[in-house]
């Protein structure tokens, strides 16, 4: 099968030596990381691995999934440089199964998927949490289209808080907000950003 145009886009974006979104974790994830219980964490659409490696340094057994082999090769290199273990899985989320009840944490930072896949992956993520497990998401909202500080230009890839909340049935929501905040992450995210932030937990 030929690689999709989207996969070629991401492989090209991650081809350079620089980390396009930097090597520091996403600010929101760093702030809420203490809420994740001990145990394995799955990072979806994890790209070059900055968030996965950060969580590994906190003692989690982390699996990073992305369609881009180029991105995950850099994730593995970053983990090796930091001296932490990291499992990487090259997969399209379209057909990536998430084992039900398996994960202490599932993280989706700037995971922008088209609507049918977005709903399916979020439902799989919600079902994939152990009792007490936590789902963390930060994504751009449609308001980001008015900005030039990063994020997809295709409106279909952007959703608001109501849609995200509706897509994670069975979880108790602890953080749910839309806000404008500075997001400066490598050269990919460069300033004020319109985002949705979610943190939700499977009841113990
Ligand atoms: C904006 S980057 C975010 C990377 C990382 N989460 C971070 O915050 O640094 C979006 C990522 O989503 C991945 N992605 C998009 N669609 C995907 C799909 N269908 N399956 C797997 N990965 C996908 C891309 O390959 C890319 O690495």
| Strand percent estimate | 25-35%
N-end to C-end Cα span = 42 Å
Helix segment tally: 6
Q: pLDDT below 50 for ≥5 consecutive residues: which ranges?
A: none
Strand order of the largest sheet: 3-2-1-4-5-7-6
The global form is globular
Chain-averaged pLDDT:
96
Q: Can you give the helix content as a percent range? A: 25-40%
Class of secondary structure makeup: alpha/beta
Number of strands: 7
Bound molecules: S-adenosylmethionine
Give the biggest sheet: 7 strands, mixed
Q: How large is the radius of gyration?
A: 16 Å
Summarize the helix and strand pattern as letters. HHEHEHEEHEHEE
Summarize the topology.
Elements lengths: L4 H9 L13 H6 L8 E4 L5 H8 L4 E5 L2 H14 L4 E4 L12 E7 L5 H13 L1 E12 L20 H6 L5 E14 L3 E13 L3
Parallel strand pairs: 1-2, 1-4, 2-3, 4-5
Antiparallel strand pairs: 5-7, 6-7
Task: Give a written overview of the molecule.
The chain is α/β, with parallel strands linked by helices. The protein is built from six helices and seven strands; from the N terminus they run H-H-E-H-E-H-E-E-H-E-H-E-E. Strands 3-2-1-4-5-7-6 form a seven-stranded mixed β-sheet. The N and C termini lie far apart (42 Å). The site of S-adenosylmethionine (SAM) has 19 residues, from helix 3. The site of S-adenosylmethionine has 19 residues, from helix 3.
Q: Which terms summarize this structure?
A:
204 residues; alpha/beta; seven-stranded mixed β-sheet; 27% helix; binds S-adenosylmethionine
